[in-house]
TrEMBL record:
One example of a Gene Ontology biological process annotation: fructose 1,6-bisphosphate metabolic process
Protein name: 6-phosphofructokinase type C
InterPro entries: 6-Pfructokinase_euk, ATP_PFK, PFK_vert-type, Phosphofructokinase_CS, Phosphofructokinase_dom, PKF_sf
Catalytic activity: beta-D-fructose 6-phosphate + ATP = beta-D-fructose 1,6-bisphosphate + ADP + H(+)
Protein species of origin: Quiscalus mexicanus (Great-tailed grackle)
Lineage: Eukaryota, Metazoa, Chordata, Craniata, Vertebrata
Pathway: Carbohydrate degradation; glycolysis; D-glyceraldehyde 3-phosphate and glycerone phosphate from D-glucose: step 3/4
Cofactor(s) annotated in UniProt: Mg(2+)
PROSITE patterns reported for this sequence: PHOSPHOFRUCTOKINASE (PS00433)
Signal peptide region: none
One term under GO cellular component: 6-phosphofructokinase complex
Statement: the UniProt record of this protein carries the keyword Nucleotide-binding: yes
Length: 731
């Protein structure tokens, strides 16, 4: 029961075994309980807690909680030696114990759905809360659409607008109220004008999102009821309020949260092992895709600074203190939600074409929407190409406007249509289309084929001047096999599908007992989905192409499962990437396990197939797709200005054909020509993949003895206040 259990002692502090944490990966909330603890706020309470810890020889604490819990932990550490001396004086512990347990090490992990802790891009639980909100918004949108209603949704966030802001981005809300960025004076008029304009444009529904702590510029609360009354009085629209409340804290954790929390758990242990009496208490967190350690008190102070700035009405400062990820979200939302009147838009006289290439991936539509709207804001005419390069060659190309992409964010698949066809056999026709439509830049959203396509188009520049224009690729594929990017749009949604399915399968297996499931995932030769799916679902093994395996390993896995069946956890889960080995097929592995497990366990197999490409995009994919695509369009504008000479665009250097990818902590533009050396073209995968470092983690969690490479663990850094111009790639 959190600190309460530490103060009460007794049965509240128990040693855990391997099995006692089995099957809790897919459970929401916390199985060890948590409680707000008044007594820990007093010195007496902390004295009692110290006594309970010393009696059990505990000098390392890992605290998972929000800023309150973490501040408490730090105070406890600072008082530790004083508390021990006092206990010795009262005769509760002996002098030997004071010496032996002289130092307390603590490490924090931030578990808070509000994502309100400075210094970390994503706190544990935020992504799952976004899943809950988006599920509700998607459901409400269908009813609002039918009835032509306006919905005011209130989401959690007393002091932090992160959930409100990201869900507004992820569902394309008409208006959002957050504590850090109160609306300007006269917002009532502006909002009503915006809502009625949208109705006039045939938009049948309006969604307004309100954070529970929303305020106006005089620090007066803006409630969901107040917003509703305003819309009804001024516009007479049929308006409903939905308060999401504690739904947001519940439910099963998303794949992202499971992997994040598993990675953070490892980091926490490493940080404790390396802690000395002189190192400051730290929190482990994620920056981009990189694990980092930050001094706990610096983060807490900065988190309190935000509140102070808000109380004093320094709102721009508050947004900046929230960090780069928050600021990026806000800027992207402002860019995409409000269309400026045509008279105010610049006129660039450039035409930009957008197309999808490869297999469908959830989040492609969010990326197209962002590209179209940012492109229009920059003054370009945007053309949509239907059905990839094949459609391009056939002249399936049309101008697309702001309103055409309304409501696209939450749609799965590819609305523009996508094909795997490469441009090489249509070069002449595509060049014709580019000339006819006067296309000055290309934005390609897709998977490995998109990357190959851009390589082909840039190779054809010698022959065709039409291809001497800026071209950019945004990676979108469930397989996450594009070089130059840690993540691609669609992979998170596919991972959630796999995780959900595995959860259900595990449930069925634990009902029947002694059953092992073998599950085949997609991904081509790339083992990302199998490996990360195994980590998120708590699997016993994952077979992937990148790590060769032989019959001895298969045998070891079977023996491992046989041992496991003797414990109280009588079920097994094995994932296999579709192309991990041409001879050890899913059927082969199934038959091998069935034979070798005779009398101990029985087997079932399951091929997940194309369900991994479908479904509504996850919050991560909507947000990632929106932001990465907006950034790509801004790059196109910059390149167009640079390459415009004597009345025409001419770009023929390598750095005018780029792939925009997430690399560790930043979004970076990389010339596709330079990525060639990093690519295994035969198997269509990058030669080096970051997630292979997480492979031992999965094995350790499945109780295999293996070594974990700690060279990549986070080093202690300081909380940096980013200068204004540091444009980094926080997602």
């Amino acid at each position: 029961q959190g600190y309460q259990g530490m103060v009460d002692g007794g049965d509240n502090i128990v040693e855990v075994s391997w099995e006692s944490v089995s099957s809790i990966l897919q459970v929401g909330g916390t199985v060890i309980g948590s409680a707000r603890c008044k007594s820990f706020r007093t010195r007496e309470g902390r004295l009692q807690a110290a006594c309970n810890l010393v009696q059990r020889g505990i000098t390392n604490l890992c605290v998972i909680g929000g800023d309150g819990s973490l501040t408490g932990a730090n105070l406890f550490r600072e008082e530790w030696s004083g508390l021990l001396e006092e206990l010795a004086q009262k005769g509760k512990i002996d002098a030997e114990a004071v010496k032996k347990y002289a130092y307390l090490n603590i490490v924090g992990m931030v578990g808070s759905i509000d994502n309100d802790f400075c210094g970390t891009d994503m706190t544990i639980g935020t992504d799952s809360a976004l899943h809950r909100i988006i599920e509700v918004v998607d459901a409400i949108m269908t009813t609002a659409q039918s009835h032509q209603r306006t919905f005011v949704l209130e989401v959690m966030g007393r002091h932090c607008g992160y959930l409100a802001l990201v869900s507004a981005l992820a569902c394309g809300a008409d208006w959002v109220f957050i504590p850090e960025y109160p609306p300007e004076e006269g917002w009532e008029d502006t909002m009503c004008v915006k809502l009625s304009e949208n109705r006039a444009r045939k938009k049948r529904l309006n969604i307004i999102i309100v954070a529970e702590g929303a305020i106006d510029c005089h620090n007066k609360p803006i409630t969901s009821e107040k917003v509703k009354d305003l819309v009804v009085q001024r516009l007479g629209f049929d308006t409903r309020v939905t308060i999401l409340g504690h739904v947001q804290r519940g439910g099963t954790p998303s794949a992202f949260d499971r992997i994040l929390a598993s990675r953070m758990g490892v980091e926490a242990v490493l940080a404790l092992l390396e802690a000395t009496p002189d190192t400051p208490a730290c929190v482990v967190s994620l920056s981009g895709n990189q694990a980092v350690r930050l001094p706990l008190m610096e983060c807490v102070q900065m988190t309190q600074e935000v509140q102070k700035a808000m109380d004093e009405g320094r709102f721009l400062e508050a947004v900046r203190l929230r960090g780069r990820s928050f600021e990026n979200n806000l800027n992207t939302y402002k860019l995409l939600s409000h269309k400026k009147p045509d008279a105010e838009l610049p006129k660039s006289n450039f035409n930009v074409a957008v197309l999808n290439v490869g297999a469908p991936a959830a989040g492609m539509n969010a990326a197209v929407r962002a590209a179209v709207r940012v492109g229009m804001t920059e003054g370009h005419k945007i053309f949509a190409v239907i059905d990839g390069f094949e459609g391009f060659a056939r002249g399936k190309i049309k101008e697309i406007s702001w309103g055409d992409v309304g409501g696209w964010t939450g749609q799965g698949g590819s609305i523009l249509g996508t094909k795997r066809t490469l441009p090489a056999k249509y070069l002449e026709k595509i060049a014709d289309q580019m000339r006819t439509n006067n296309i000055n830049a290309l934005m390609v959203i897709g998977g490995f084929e998109a990357y190959l396509g851009l390589l082909e188009l840039s190779a054809a520049r010698e022959k065709y001047d039409e291809f001497c224009v800026p071209m950019v690729m945004v990676p979108a594929t469930v397989s996450n096999n594009v070089p130059g990017s840690d993540f691609s749009i669609g992979a998170d949604t596919a991972l959630n599908t796999i995780t959900d399915t595995c959860d259900r399968i595990k449930q069925s297996a634990s009902g029947t007992k002694r059953r092992v499931f073998i599950i085949e995932t997609m991904g081509g030769y790339c083992g990302y989905l199998a490996n990360m799916g195994a980590l998120a679902a708590g699997a016993d093994a994952a077979y992937i192409f990148e790590e060769q395996f032989d019959i001895r390993e298969l045998q070891a896995n079977v023996e491992h499962l046989t041992e496991k069946m003797k414990t109280s956890i009588q079920r097994g889960l094995v994932l296999r990437n579709e192309n991990c080995n041409e001879n050890y097929t899913t059927d082969f592995i199934y038959q091998l396990y069935s034979e070798e497990g005779k009398g101990v366990f029985d087997c079932r197999k399951n091929v997940l197939g194309h369900m991994q490409q479908g479904g509504a995009p996850s919050p991560f994919d909507r947000n990632f797709g929106t932001k990465i695509s907006a950034k790509a369009m801004q790059w196109i504008s910059k390149k167009l200005k640079e390459t415009y000479r004597k009345g025409k665009v001419f770009a023929n250097t390598d750095d005018s054909v780029c792939l925009l990818g997430m690399r560790r902590r930043n979004l970076v533009f990389q010339p596709v020509a330079e990525l060639k050396s990093e690519t295994d073209f035969v198997h269509r995968i990058p030669k080096e993949q970051w997630w292979l470092k997480l492979r031992p983690l999965m094995k350790i969690l499945a109780k295999y003895k293996t070594s974990y490479d700690v060279s990549d663990s986070g080093q202690l850094e300081h909380v940096a206040m980013l200068p204004k111009e540091a444009e980094t790639g926080a997602i």
